[in-house]
């Protein structure tokens, strides 16, 4: 790929370009490592000192840093440098010409009853079953399975190995054995949703599992049957959501979070990594529950005491009572 | 699919039908949302009040709720409504005609030495290696890999993306480098086992990894080499079982549970979600070990103190000693 | 496969053979269960008593156990019996003839621009995208995806279902919605690396995600974008490493470990299972942070108190103060 001028970038993506518009850019790079033919961005004002040291040909900056940026060389000034950077990566990848082409890879196995928008792409060796709908401009990676009757909106991205519409985990007991409950629902995924690699979204038992518009899921996530996830909620890798739980809109769940079944999380709930949420949360906010790590020997000591916590509290209670009694006996003597 | 009469359902699945047998049913639905042409079930006696409000055409109920159910309309009375519901979903799906057909999808890659029962089904783009046996009526989903010499029983269900018989994780150290131990065992899976989407079951190092009859595994589970899982044990999503561990029969492991290697869990052991089991359990029962979550600021305060637990216990001990000494000095004066 | 003599084994793999070199060996087996035609090994001196009871035809032993081993029958004496065993499994599997053949399975979908060493093997239904390099003797399993421009070294093993080079999880916020940051980097994997089944290694955002030589990853692991993993570091199943984190060389991460983003772990760091590492570790050593499990009822009691830890510490402080004050008042009287 040939290099491109700053003028072309600013023309495509906007922003106020200062400096030599004819400078050639060959790559996008982080502030610390950007080279002489690279464009970079400053989105965190605390890193403003790096403006002095970066060798980048051009820095995308907020108006507050415009003056400092101009003092060192070319810059593009924009209200939200990180957003500008995101759009630049999109534009860059299109220029690279390695975006998936619309259409169905010949090795994919697509049921004749599936309806796939002609602007969507389906990658190599993916399986699209009967009754599936796939919206416009949606990119299905390689080796994805979308099972019968599931619906995927427009402009979604489904990474390789994802399984959408596998059976929910449902059984009735008959004595000691488990009798399968066939999962008769499906999965409904809104527009602009991203599904990570090897992530699994189970079909509903009777109704549907639903991901609202703008939901973003990382890799190796488990979404159980009948879960509902609200708009623009994002989950990092290795999260597991149990059956029939309802996650609100604009939530973030960090890596490894677990949420039990049949509960609700309010909109704007943020859960720290590896935390297990075991009851409904009606108040937005940040929630955490992770055992703080230590050098192993120290952990062993403290973990052993952890099992005596209730006893310790009882001992404190006793101490308080006995001390009060002792004080009562001492005080009158003091006064006398 | 055309609707079906209550009479047909009761004829196929049994139970005592009360009310108009000619009512047409078009779907199965939960009690809360069932509509006028839908059948539902009441398996939890605490929800009996919903009998008044449901619009369902027919409710499957226990004899204890039969009178109330009849008062509102048609019902099917049976000893175990939830089990009846499970059987109904199975019968319903067969009627829908979307059960996998017996036989091997033409896109699957099946080694000529593999033995697949003619009543079994193998989904699109699955890989079945040399020496594999697959039993009668077993359903292998799409994009499943079953590696060399693994054995799958009858009536199993293997969901999409599962990998059965990958190499166990075994290495010997030579200085700082790891030397691979080729995994010469296989995986043996009994009858009536379910394996979830993208779940991995590693082959044994020398002997076999074994899942007994009736085991049910959800999605994204890791079963390491040489693990043995007893009959009818069920594991929810994201569980990890380390090498050579032996899980008893009729156990349940909730989502995200981890079990270390080379230990044994007794029959009828039940482990709460996200708990890590680090030693053998010889007594059946329920075990839990999860950090209780809190609003982040409160968690930060308590987690900081957690690291001083042993010191706190020592301080309580000191207090007890000193208080006793103080009391000893006070008491005689009181008596004097 | 026909049985083989001890002489042939010792000739192929070295070691000092004692006893009847013509004994026929049909399998490798653990010490406890080895039968009369099987070879086994003793790598843990604490198990030396088993030398008396094993029925094995031959035991691989350390010189320190040579005398005892010879007293019971044939043995092979070597400095490192476990390493010898590892090499024996490799040699054995080659004899079995079930090693993957070099070359590309006809069902794999390989981009014409990919460069695959002719000694490498690519399994059934794998997808190798444009610009990928795969080194000599590397074994790619079935149903693996290696996305555009990723590089895999020599003698690597990639298990079935792994996804190498999926998009990193990167978005900029625009109001409440997420704008995708196209991931323009790739994944670079050194020589002698093993990647487990259904493991995901995301491509870098701008630079590369890098696994150094000799890294070993188990199944269902998540390596986020721009992570770097040092030489010979091994991770057990279900580990998750967040973006831009740098793991040192010769580390071990046990199953289910989570590591937050943008931190560094020193060389020779060892993390216990299910521990969450939330800040950089500059000192090598073993780190642990897992809630100790208990019978559920006991856990409930202790977990409830856990939320009052800070209050408990404050109560201890108060007790200490008040007791000191009480003692001060008591002591002078004692002296008087």
Structural overview:
Chains A, B, C: It catalyses: a UDP-3-O-[(3R)-3-hydroxyacyl]-alpha-D-glucosamine + a (3R)-hydroxyacyl-[ACP] = a UDP-2-N,3-O-bis[(3R)-3-hydroxyacyl]-alpha-D-glucosamine + holo-[ACP] + H(+). The structure is a homotrimer of 336-residue chains. The first copy, chain A, is an alpha/beta fold and 336 residues long. Chain A folds into 3 domains: 4-96, MurE/MurF, N-terminal domain (Udp-n-acetylmuramoylalanyl-d-glutamate--2,6- Diaminopimelate Ligase, Chain: A, domain 1, 3-Layer(aba) Sandwich), CATH 3.40.1390; 103-287, Hexapeptide repeat proteins (UDP N-Acetylglucosamine Acyltransferase, domain 1, 3 Solenoid); 302-335. In chain A, the strands form 7 sheets. The first copy, chain A, has a 9-stranded parallel sheet with strand order 9-12-15-18-23-26-29-32-35, with no helix packed on it. Chain A has an 8-stranded parallel sheet with strand order 10-13-16-21-24-27-30-33, with no helix packed on it. The model of chain A has no long low-confidence stretch (mean pLDDT 96). Chains B and C meet through β19, β20, β35, β36 and α5 of B and β4, α4, β37, α5 and α6 of C.
Summarize the structure.
The structure is a homotrimer of 336-residue chains. Chain A contains six helices and 37 strands. In chain A, the strands form seven sheets. In chain A, strands 9-12-15-18-23-26-29-32-35 form a nine-stranded parallel β-sheet, with no helix packed on it. An eight-stranded parallel β-sheet of chain A has the order 10-13-16-21-24-27-30-33, with no helix packed on it.
């Amino acid at each position: 790929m040939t290099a491109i001028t700053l003028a072309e970038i600013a023309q495509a993506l906007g922003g106020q370009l200062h400096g030599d518009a004819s400078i050639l850019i060959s790559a996008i790079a982080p502030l610390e490592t950007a080279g002489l033919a690279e464009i970079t961005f400053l989105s965190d004002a605390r890193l403003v000192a790096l403006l002095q040291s970066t060798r980048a040909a051009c820095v995308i900056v907020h108006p507050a840093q415009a003056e400092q940026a101009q003092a060192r060389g070319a810059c593009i000034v924009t209200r939200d440098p990180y957003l500008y950077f995101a759009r630049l990566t999109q534009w860059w990848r299109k220029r690279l010409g390695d975006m998936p082409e619309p259409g169905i890879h010949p090795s994919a196995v697509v049921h004749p009853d599936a309806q796939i928008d002609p602007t969507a792409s389906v990658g190599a060796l993916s399986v699209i079953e009967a009754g599936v709908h796939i919206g416009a401009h949606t990119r299905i990676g390689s080796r994805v399975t979308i099972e019968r009757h599931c619906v995927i909106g427009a402009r979604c991205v489904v990474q390789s190995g994802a399984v959408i519409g596998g059976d929910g985990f449902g059984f009735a007991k008959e004595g000691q054995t488990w009798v399968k409950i066939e999962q008769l629902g499906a999965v409904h995924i809104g527009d602009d949703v991203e599904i990570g690699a090897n992530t699994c979204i189970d079909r509903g038992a009777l109704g549907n599992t639903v991901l609202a518009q703008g939901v973003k899921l990382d890799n190796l996530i488990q979404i159980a049957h009948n879960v509902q996830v609200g708009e623009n909620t994002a989950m990092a890798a290795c999260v597991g959501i149990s059956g029939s739980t309802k996650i609100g809109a604009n939530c973030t769940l960090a890596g490894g979070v677990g949420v039990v079944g049949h509960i609700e999380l309010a909109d704007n709930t943020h859960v720290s990594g590896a935390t297990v949420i075991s009851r409904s949360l009606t108040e937005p906010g940040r929630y955490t529950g992770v055992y703080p790590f230590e050098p192993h020997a120290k952990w062993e000591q403290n973990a052993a005491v952890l099992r005596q916590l209730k006893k310790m509290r009882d001992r404190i209670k006793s101490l308080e009572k006995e001390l009060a009694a002792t004080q009562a006996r001492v005080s009158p003597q003091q006064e006398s």
